[in-house]
Specification:
The complex is a heterodimer of chains A (169) and B (438). Chain A is of the alpha+beta class and 169 residues long. In chain A, 18% of the residues lie in helices and 41% in strands. Chain A has three helices and nine strands, in the order αββαββαβββββ. Chain A has helices spanning 9-20, 54-57, 83-96; strands at residues 34-42, 48-53, 64-73, 80-81, 102-110, 116-123, 127-133, 141-149, 160-168. In chain A, strands 1-2-3-5-6-7-8-9 form an eight-stranded antiparallel β-barrel. Residues 1-28 of chain A have low confidence and may be disordered. With 438 residues, chain B is an alpha+beta fold. In chain B, strand 5 (135-143) and strand 6 (148-151) form a beta hairpin. In chain B, helix 8 (359-369) packs across helix 9. Chain B is globular and about 65 Å long. Chain A binds chain B through residues 1-2, 4, 46, 66, 68, 70-71, 80, 82-83, 87, 107, 109, 111-116, 134-136, 138, and chain B through 14, 16, 51, 53-54, 67, 69, 73, 107-108, 110-111, 167-171, 173, 190-192, 196-198, 218, 220-221, 224.
Amino acid sequence: MRRPRRGSCSLAVVLATCAALVAVSCDRSPGRWVDEVTIGVDLEAGQRWVAHGTPVDRGQFCPNGIRHVLEGRDPTTDDIVRVSVWSQIIEDAIATRNTTEVDLVVEHTCTDGSGSFVTIEHWGTDTWSIDSGTGAYRALTGGGALRFATAHYSEVRPLRLFLDGELEG
Amino acid sequence: MPTRASWTFGHGGGDVYSGRLEIAEALGAILYITPRAAFDYQGPPLDLEVHVDQVFVGDGRALVRFDAQHLAGGVPWMQLYAVVGDAVLTSRLYTEDLGHIIPNERWTHEPEHPFYDRYIDVWSSGDPDRLAEVYARTVVVRDEFGGESWHGLDELGGEIASAPPLEHGPWPERFRFDSGIRPERIAVVQLGGSCPALEARRWVFDDGLIVDETRFAHVPSVRRCQGDGGEGWWTDFDATGSEEFGVDTITIGERSIEVVNTDRMQRDLVRWLFGRFGAGSLAQPDVAAFWFPPSVDCGLSEAIARPDDDRFEGRHTVTLCFTPDELSSGWPDRRWSSHVVHQGLHELAHVWMYDRLDDPDRQAFVDRVGLDTWRDTDTFWPERGVEVAAETIAWGLAGTERAQYLIMPPPDCAELTDRYVMLTGQDPLTTCDTDGVG
């Protein structure tokens, strides 16, 4: 399992975005972009996801992909959590919409081959941040808030996980 | 045995989708998956659901990465298909390379792939001298999609400076197929540069180094980066109606041999090749199966012998990459192409030697012909004792009119005869009545 970590910029970003999804303060290179992105994950269909936002429209962020949970960690001790535990947490979230606190390290792979990125999701406190990336997402930073919802308020299923956030790439 | 599968490539929009039900149905018949999924499982047949995640293509070959999911969870796989026309497929299934022995530890122990990490590091360094850390000096690298190839480290060294930056691919990055002395790995890598792209690389190892590398392009990446360049034989390819490859059994003496993808002419050739061993008073090579195209091995060479083929319980097999229209000599008095005869006898000679030469025999032959080694990854094949020996036996069994000896310059006929006698204890069928080597 590979979790290349970069500098502390992403941590600063997530702290900022967790508070109010406000603009980030990291140094920016010319030609880079900062904008809001929403990633909607269909938890019940192979964890495939669809992304929306201006960067997607501009071709700066891939429109869809698949995600894979690399590992789960105890948010208090940072110890690795057994797969049976975190997979049950995901199942419970789908069934009851209640989430237990757990940190998930998740790799998101773009279907179009443009690259992949790893996120740290804090279930329970419902925040997330970019940890690392490859290809077009090597310099990706940012993060935001998690929320569970269906496509329409009147629907019960399928439950989707939405990652709303501001990213810099 | 792998049989068939169905997958379809979307046209336009960069979508890649599959007939997943058909794939699941096909995979259900594959021995590789069913025993693992059903290990200690006493219930009804598992309902496999297959998601195709990535498709990579080459010249008549495709690598399909999929997740096979059932109630107990999902498992990633990679399957290599050889495609001919729009119908027959053969395939090889690669399992996730966990990097450690105990599968359950995948969730608690970080997989270690030191070779993969070193490979990425070598290519990222831009230093041609470091290629020897992962490649054999004799390596052949083929870009099946681009049509380029590099032979040996010197040629490959010229490529490293202009190669796009290389990074780890998405999980699980590596898949494995272990078959005797030439294990294989599939590595998924992320190419950087102006248009990042995924790529799959098939590695064939010998003595811990890559001796063959085949690169397969990721269809959506190509379409995104090259526009119209992403179309080819795979566009709208639908193998739903593909037939299983044909497996027949022929009897040679008291031995039954499975022959795969053969017509009558190819089966006749197999009988003729084995007949040369009988005519030369040599024991028949102990071959479990004889393959013809399509085969996933045919992109690597014209012919290959495997000492311990996992598909056949670790027994010897031979693959001969010639289609029926390539077998004929074109001469009315000579049925078989001399080159095909030579390649077939060469591989069968390898099989014959697996069981009949011991280390002292091999060393004696190496000393006799003045070489340094019987077989070594970093020695070019004409300088390996085992290849010189296989050439010698193939020459001796072919018969005077067909005999070939491809290592240049060839020894004279008397010397070849002496070497043949040393290896087999018999006189060759090829005589020195004519000029040259026969």
